[in-house]
Amino acid sequence: MRWAGKSIIPVLTILAVLIAVWYVAAISMNAPFQRDTNARGGVQPGTWEFIGQTLSQPKPTLPAPHQVAVNVFESTFLRKVTSNRSLVYHSWVTLSSTLAGFGLGTALGILIAVGIVHIRALDRSLMPWIIASQTIPILAIAPMIVVVLAAVNVTGLVPKALISTYLSFFPVAVGMVKGLRSPELLHLDLMRTYNASAAQIFWRLRVPASVPFLFASMKVAVAASLVGAIVGELPTGAVAGIGSKLLAGAYYSQTIDIWAALVAGSVVAALLVTLVGVAGRVVERSMGAQPS
Amino acid sequence: MISITPPVVAASGLSLTFQTSDGPVNALADVDLTIGKGEFVSFIGPSGCGKTTFLRVIADLEKPTAGSILVNGMTPEQARERRAYGYVFQAAALFPWRTIERNVALPLEIMGLSQTEQRERVKRTLDLVNLTGFEKKYPWQLSGGMQQRASIARALAFDADLLLMDEPFGALDEIVRDHLNKQLLELWARTNKTICFVTHSIPEAVYLSTRIVVMSPRPGRVTDVIQSTLPKERPLHIRETPEFLEIAARVREGLHAGHSYED
């Protein structure tokens, strides 16, 4: 990985700066509460001791990086993965509905794109609706999906997956419309000289030409799916998942738990996006793409 | 009963007007031309003279707006549906996700040939354009000249009697072009196909053709048709003979005449 070698120093530098800023912010944001507590307790700590106190509150306004790190470590590695205090458990719950929604969303997106590219009426009518669907805030529509489905006794993974689907079909549909229309005029002319049927043009030209577009949009879609799954867990009063962890943390002012859940969410997101990227590269390589 | 083979291409009064935002453009105006079986006809002229358009009309990639054209005695559409011709474009237009052999097999797949037949034909045509050994390579692994040869192989693979070539060597350097010209002549001699060849280059047109159609622009029309007196056997150095130069001079004159009214 030449890429990693070249960018590791800048990346680490930025990380160090961010952590430094975070510590400064944590100290200054937790200071008022600590000053209050100390005043009530009649304690007069020195500057260093005071800074230490601001960085070790049980429910800080802004937890320090090491507090979050310790929480993440403990709830990832020191708990049984089946325990509901385990981040692995919660991540898995969210991940499973993310993947279900992503799969469904990708399939739906491709289907819509194929329709738009091949059926003139759909081309004219569908796109504005698809765009409109994404202008509705997901936070508004998620609870309704959950409530409506609960009324017909559909609960658990399915409503969350559907919210993920709702968010993830869009980038795939848009990307695939572009991808399926990406063949050059020259290639289309060539197929015409062979008197190729629409199906032959689709499978032999449009589909292979759209593959890079598919993976690019799937990267966006998988991240959106995760957001959808987490948002889907917020209004349900879900007992498990990264979203429920966020909500519980907010109820009980467990700020460290909230941040730990956020870290878990970003790790899952990074893993998913990387995985899609790697899959894309493997597929494109197997299709004879020039190694870059 | 006497059966008369119809000419490969018969155009009369052929016109094509494109409607553009700047008004109508007469790409072809009143073109009469008959091409017989086994001929090698070059179309030469400046940009916009309609030479490519004429090829595209034969191929049913454009529809004429007036006049008539028959390909093998059929309409261009019927001829295309019967896969009457192979078309070589200016760019190689290979599919980047297919290896060379799979690119050459593309028309064969579409025409529904059996796997064995496909393999056999791919092997034979790649051999014909001297690309044996490059079957498993992807297009980007080949030079521009080799890519263009692969695209010629693809056009030859399904054995149409008519080959339409639109400046196939336009983007290549002169050394490669000379080499491919020679190979193309050999191929034509061996297969006895009819070839329509669009070019910008006077030496190329004279070297390759049995007949040279000189065209001029605005509106695109035929200004001269020159029957070549060169023998069928043409080594590269034939291009220095007086006979060759005489034909080249006549082509140049024709091109000039087509332009003179503009000044």
Description:
The complex is a heterodimer of chains A (292) and B (263). Chain A has helices spanning 2-41, 47-54, 65-77, 87-118, 120-135, 138-151, 157-180, 185-193, 198-233, 242-251, 255-286. Chain A has 292 residues and is an all-alpha fold. In chain A, helix 6 (138-151) packs across helix 7. In chain A, 35% of the residues are buried. By secondary structure, chain B is α/β, with parallel strands linked by helices. Chain B folds into two domains: 9-84 and 162-260, 3-Layer(aba) Sandwich (Rossmann fold), CATH 3.40.50; 95-159, no CATH class. Chain B contains eight helices and nine strands. Chain B has helices at residues 51-58, 76-81, 100-110, 115-128, 144-156, 174-191, 202-208, 242-260, and strands at residues 9-20, 23-35, 40-44, 66-71, 85-88, 162-166, 194-199, 211-216, 221-227. In chain B, strands 5-6-7-3-8-9 form a six-stranded mixed beta sheet, sandwiched between helices. Chain B starts with 8 loop residues before the first strand and ends with a helix. Chain A binds chain B through residues 184, 186-187, 189-196, 200, 204-205, 208, 211, 287-290, and chain B through 59-61, 80-81, 83, 85-87, 89, 91, 93, 95-99, 106-107, 109-111, 138, 140. Chain B: This is ABC transporter ATP-binding protein. Chain B: InterPro entries: AAA+_ATPase, ABC_transporter-like_ATP-bd, ABC_transporter-like_CS, ABC_transporter_ATP-bind, P-loop_NTPase. Chain B: Residues 9-242 form the ABC transporter domain. Chain B: One of its GO terms (molecular function) is ATP binding.
